[in-house]
Amino acid sequence: MPPLFRFRSEAQGESNTAALRVVSNGRSGNLMSSRENNAGRLSISRRALLGLGMGAAGAGLGVSFGLGRIMGEDSTMRSTSPGRETPQLSRGRLGARPLEVKTAAATASTGLQQLKLESGRDGFIYVPAAYRAERPAPLMLMLHGAGGNARHSIPLLQRFADREGLILLVPDSRGQTWDVINGGYGPDVAYIDRALEQTFSRYRIDPARLAIGGFSDGASYALSLGATNGDLFTHVVAFSPGFMSPASEHGSPAVFISHGTRDAVLPIAACSRKIVPRVKRAGYKVRYREFDGAHTVPAEIAVEAIDWFLKDVGADS
User: Which of 115, 119, 151, 237 fits a disulfide with 213 by CB distance 3.0 to 4.6 angstroms?
Assistant: First the structure.
């Protein structure tokens, strides 16, 4: 099995602001912005050094692999809020599951709604007008990049939601980025679990079409949580990820990864070109797309990802 290695980038006050530009029908617009750390010295755990017997190899940023089939070695993730989260949540495990009750949420609201789980950083759910309780809907949990928020993520996929009857659940991270990037699973897992529980209680969700996705830091977190909760999520969509750090592995979700060859925020050579071969060797079904572009999601990539998720058109040929 491949050796364990985990690199973590530590910000030193520098950052890049990447405007996520989506071009469609000849028009372009900034649909999502994400402040991603692109500086910093590499730090590597003593355990990882022992496993590697070599220095860090990343290009000034973090590349992390989790356990099991991907790493072949056990690892312990620490919670960012000791004593406040259950052991299950600190291990990245989500407890929420879609309800089987056919009468659930017959009068549920549609449109864009705030989650209202907390004051301050919270999140949104978008339910297309065509939603009907008698027909279970696909759901995508979408995660923003570092320094971003839920509102930035909605325009990227809203038209697909309207066209395909897709429900979008878009939470805010508890801090400027997701918990595992700051040290370990905990508060963000707990919040996502609450958001999923609320959604499952109000809407009929198709358990065979339940995806987790994200951009940049959100893509890294989607890969990590998706593998850790592959018995919940059927698909993982990662636009320009930087690392993958599952706390454990459950199930075998299908994986879609895209990355720009001119990405200066999370360079492709140090990120997706390292992540994808490891994930494939671990036995996951992977659709991988490189494109000539920067730290962004081109419209054609977004279209392909959603079609791949909803129609499950398979891995790379």
Answer: 237
Distance between CA atoms of 106 and 117, rounded to whole angstroms?
22
pLDDT in tens, 81-129: 333 456 788 899 999 999 875 555 556 899 999 999 988 899 999 999 9
- Phi/psi at 103 (nearest 5 deg)? -95, 5
Residue 3: how many other CB atoms lie within 10 Å: 14
Q: How far apart are CA 171 and CA 153, in angstroms?
A: 10
Whole-number CA gyration radius for the chain? 18
**Look-up: residue for tokens 């990405």?**
263
How does pLDDT run across 208-231, given as a tens digit for each residue?
999 999 999 999 999 999 999 999
Band (pLDDT 50/70/90 cuts) for residue 291 is very high
Closest CA to 108 of 200, 22, 240, 32: 200
Q: Which residues of 62-72 are buried (b: 16+ CB within 10 A; e: fewer)?
A: bbbbbbbbbbe
Report the C-alpha gap between 136 and 207 in whole angstroms.
8
Q: b/e map of 266-301 (b: 16 or more CB within 10 Å)?
A: bbbebbbebbbebbeebebbbbbbbbebbbbbbbeb
| Residue partners of 200: CB distance under 8 A and separation at least 6 | 96, 97, 98, 99, 104
- Picking from 129, 98, 135, the residue whose alpha carbon sits closest to that of residue 112 is 129
| 3-class secondary structure, 97 | coil
Return the higher-pLDDT residue of 256 and 149.
256
Among candidates 172, 180, 164, which has minimal Cα distance to 229? Answer: 180
Report the 10 Å Cβ neighbour count for 59: 15
Q: Over 60: is that where the pLDDT of 74 sits? A: no
